[in-house]
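hiii, so i know i said id send this last week but things got crazy w the move. better late than never?? heres the sequnce for the chain we talked about at the cafe, plus the structure i predicted for it. fair warning i was half asleep when i ran it
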Amino acid sequence: MTDILRMLRRLSEAVAALFMFLIFATFIVQVAIRYGARLDGLVAVLPFLNPDHFGWTLEFCLALWVWLIFWGNAFIVRRQDHVTFDILSESVPRPVARIFLVITGLAVGIGLLASIEPTWGRFAILRIKQTATLSDLFGDWIRMRDVYMIYFVFLVAVGLRSLWLAVQAIRGREPKAATTPDGAGGNE
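okay and structure toks below
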């Protein structure tokens, strides 16, 4: 089971790396087109370098950024990677701290999963709206809903992970503590 989880984690990291590569490559295209268009006669010789054809690059970078943030937080960022305010939970006995984990895991998990339906209702209008410039790249089929669909993946993944944390705390299993480079305990 851990081999499968490790493979899925590596796959999700590869997807995030692909998003970052595409953002960087698109940025390089933006810079090349912006400064290349200033060269006298270049656009006349190579009409495909006309800056009017590259308006999609900004919106594409922004869409990829949204996907990178929600994808990374759904599948890559671990619990111990987050900043935690644990003064209270560290000052109480372990059974009480476990109760805190159960309460917060249930609250976050139920809250995120319960927000799916109302959020989907608000997203209904986005199935009609087209993106401003991504149709130049992908065609007319892409809608704003498609750009923000990753948010629902985030809600489900983080919601289920939070519920799993609560289940583990109920079972008496402590979450793995973060370790610092010197081997000392972290901020769990």
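btw Residues 2-170 form one domain. thought thatd interest u
miss u guys!!
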